Amino acid sequence: MVVEHKSYARVGFLGNPSDVYFGRAMSFSLANFWASVQLRPSDQLLIQPHPTHDLVSFQSIHHLVHRLDTEGYYGGVRLLMAICKVFYKHCQEKNIELNKGNFTLSYDTNIPRQTGLSGSSAIVCAALNCLLDFYNVRHLIKVEIRPNLILNAEKELGIVAGLQDRVVQVYGGLVYMDFSRENMDKLGHGIYMPMDVNLLPPLFLIYAENPSDSGKVHSTVSQRWLDGDEFIISSMNEVAGLAEKGKTVLLEKNYKELVNIMNRNFDLRRQMFGDKALGALNIKMVEVARSVGAAAKFTGSGGAVVAFCPGGPSQVSLLESACKEAGFTLQKISVVPSFLSEEESKSLITY
Ligand SMILES: Nc1ncnc2c1ncn2[C@@H]1O[C@H](COP(=O)(O)OP(=O)(O)O)[C@@H](O)[C@H]1O
Ligand SMILES: O=C(O)[C@H]1O[C@H](OP(=O)(O)O)[C@H](O)[C@@H](O)[C@@H]1O
Ligand SMILES: [Mg+2]
């Protein structure tokens, strides 16, 4: 029995990064890019390195150093190992029996690497889905809990990350999420509300080959937040509030106000993180979009931008030219509908 699962990239549409800090967020599953994981039964338990993403053979020392400078030390192998560990420990803790032989896990991805499109958790989410089916335990691990397991796999590796990406990668579609401390403490997870994807106006993705490490980007703000820095705490609360406002604005189809909310979301991130942490190229992507009057903000911690053109097709043409001139890739966003089964949707609040 070979099991294969696909998990899509995600766009943190509003409220990110407050999800890392007990805030609120609205995100959607992006059909343009995905990761896939395959599980095959085998005699040995093998985590297969990807031929390009886990490169260990180089043409020269120059090539090796260039690769480390541009893409860092790690690929997906550590993510696959970490989710195996987290899944196993969770099952042990919950007395879920895992009666099966060994397997080989392999992965592939076309999600631009480390561009804030959640390439990391797409690999982890697809692997978790393989494990759930291989061991036939999907019915024993609630849908609300699965994002926590995906996040814990990355936390295990010391990556600073939040839940918004993992939630939408498990649920699919458009989801509004409330991670308030009260809910997290009481329920052990946030409150996740699927929304109608048709409420979204046409959106565009701008990105560049410019990998940035979300853990590194978050580390200073994360420490300041832990230290009780008032500016970070109040700004993060405002960012969380934007997701909530955004929910109302989308339901009312008030797209004029959506422009202000998206722009404010990025401006607050910029004030909190500072230009050095965000990176000049990432900031330029937002500025290029804004130069034609589009609203723009990061999809994640940096590398890709979600843009909205309230002026319609003529403004989209201007955006196309501006991106081309700046050397950025522009794609029309396509959203993946919800993945939830009828059974899984029943317990959830929908809009
Ligand atoms: N496309 C990829 N292929 C292989 N591994 C990846 C890829 N993207 C991310 N990773 C792994 O996940 C880790 C964290 O990536 P992260 O900075 O969160 O990127 P992203 O914004 O894509 O989620 C990386 O250090 C690496 O180990
Ligand atoms: O900063 C953000 O918006 C997000 O950063 C991480 O996502 P990534 O795709 O790795 O950049 C993090 O996992 C999210 O929870 C944050 O919202
Ligand atoms: Mg990530």
TrEMBL record:
InterPro entries annotated for this entry? Answer: GHMP_kinase_C_sf (IPR036554), GHMP_kinase_N_dom (IPR006204), Glucuronokinase-like (IPR053034), Ribosomal_Su5_D2-typ_SF (IPR020568)
Q: Does the keyword Translocase apply?
A: no
- Keywords for this protein: ATP-binding, Carbohydrate metabolism, Cobalt, Kinase, Magnesium, Manganese, Metal-binding, Nucleotide-binding, Transferase
Which EC number(s) does UniProt give? Answer: 2.7.1.43
> Which is a Pfam family this sequence falls into?
GHMP_kinases_N
Kindly list the cofactors needed: Mn(2+); Mg(2+)
Catalysed reactions listed for this entry = D-glucuronate + ATP = 1-phospho-alpha-D-glucuronate + ADP + H(+)
What does the record give under GO molecular function? ATP binding; glucuronokinase activity; metal ion binding
- Domain GHMP kinase N-terminal: from-to ranges: 90-173
As for what it does, the entry says: Sugar-1-kinase with a strict substrate specificity for D-glucuronic acid and ATP. Involved in the biosynthesis of UDP-glucuronic acid (UDP-GlcA), providing nucleotide sugars for cell-wall polymers. May be also involved in a salvage pathway for glucuronic acid.
The UniProt entry's sequence similarity note says: Belongs to the GHMP kinase family.
Which PANTHER family does the entry link to?
WITH PUTATIVE URIDYL PYROPHOSPHORYLASE-RELATED
Q: What is this protein called?
A: glucuronokinase
